[in-house]
């Protein structure tokens, strides 16, 4: 999936700031490809980007209208359809991370069939994939893993990519989830891939390369999450990672949405991920731990990172509070 850039971020008519997290993530990590925002009402949440009409955005060079918000059920509401249809008729590509496919809206699908637009349903993937083979391939790779889902794997991967680039190391973020794909402009949503092809999909996301130094692969789920462990295992095998970064949220009481399921210890998580990763890369090593320390004070967080760094013999940080420079330097040294 290749999505044309730059973007006009479509915020629809949502008023809940959390509903715009996709657009906010794109703007945070790729501000240079966000030309402006399109809001249907003055009450709609804002990213403090320039408000633009479709015509103004097209004149500025926008190529894709990105639906940057979510709503309950992930269904495209009727109030958005006229704007999406107008954009498609003007030649914009349209990208969406909603559960409902854009192509299910018959007028949009007709315009795509006539070659007037391209529709990108990033939560879905329909192209043929090969089964993973585990053969060694050129290039170095890092994969973010976690004690659970939603512990900062995408954020950490993007922060590491940025820190490496700032250090003069050529690194590329490889997306495996819908928001990551919209940030990167390409990728495969792993949770939309049939189980047999997950490792093959990761091999396709990060094939052989010699033109840069590192691929930073966005992790998904957790080996200890009863719902998503299969996705995590396929990622570990397909990535053939040279390096792992473990992500964890301080204070989380149990596996997300499963109060009967205990969180694993950090030691268990490190051991299990290294063992799984070493099936396809015997030299995989842990290079850092990224924590979400929002539940504690900054002083407590700093002390915790210092203590854990001594305990686990790798740099430990909160990417939001303290950055990932030490992890980046350890990666560069490999």
Automatic annotation (TrEMBL):
This is EBNA-1 nuclear protein. InterPro entries: DgcN-like, DgcN-like_C, DgcN-like_N, P-loop_NTPase. It comes from Vibrio hyugaensis. Residues 48-124 form the D-glutamate N-acetyltransferase-like N-terminal domain. Residues 131-327 form the D-glutamate N-acetyltransferase-like C-terminal domain. Transmembrane segments: none annotated.
């Amino acid at each position: 999936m290749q999505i044309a850039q730059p973007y006009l971020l479509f915020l629809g008519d949502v008023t809940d700031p959390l509903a715009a997290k996709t657009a906010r993530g794109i703007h945070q990590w790729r501000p240079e490809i966000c030309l402006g925002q399109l809001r249907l009402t003055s009450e709609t949440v804002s990213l403090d980007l320039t408000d633009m009409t479709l015509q103004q955005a097209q004149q500025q060079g926008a190529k894709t209208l990105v639906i940057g918000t979510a709503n309950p059920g992930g269904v495209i509401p009727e109030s958005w359809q006229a704007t999406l249809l107008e954009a498609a008729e003007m030649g914009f590509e349209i990208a969406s991370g909603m559960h409902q496919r854009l192509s299910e809206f018959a007028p949009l699908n007709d315009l795509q069939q006539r070659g007037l637009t391209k529709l990108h349903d990033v939560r879905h993937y329909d192209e043929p994939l090969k089964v993973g083979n585990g053969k060694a391939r050129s290039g170095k790779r890092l994969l973010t893993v976690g004690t659970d889902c939603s512990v900062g794997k995408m954020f950490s991967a993007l922060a590491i990519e940025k820190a490496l680039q700032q250090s003069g190391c050529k690194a590329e973020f490889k997306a495996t989830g819908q928001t990551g794909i919209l940030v990167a402009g390409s990728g495969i949503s792993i949770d939309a891939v049939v189980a047999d092809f997950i490792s093959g999909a990761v091999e396709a996301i990060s094939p052989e390369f010699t033109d840069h130094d590192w691929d930073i692969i966005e992790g998904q789920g957790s080996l200890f999450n009863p719902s998503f462990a299969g996705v995590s295992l396929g990622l570990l095998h397909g990535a053939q990672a040279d390096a792992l970064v473990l992500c964890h949220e301080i204070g989380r009481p149990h596996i997300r949405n499963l109060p009967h399921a205990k969180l694993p210890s950090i030691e268990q998580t490190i051991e299990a991920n290294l063992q799984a990763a070493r099936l396809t890369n015997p030299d995989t090593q842990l290079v850092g731990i990224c924590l979400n320390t929002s539940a504690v004070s900054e002083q407590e967080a700093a002390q915790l990172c210092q203590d854990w760094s001594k305990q686990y013999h790798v740099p430990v940080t909160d990417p939001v509070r303290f950055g990932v420079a030490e992890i980046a330097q350890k990666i560069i040294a490999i």
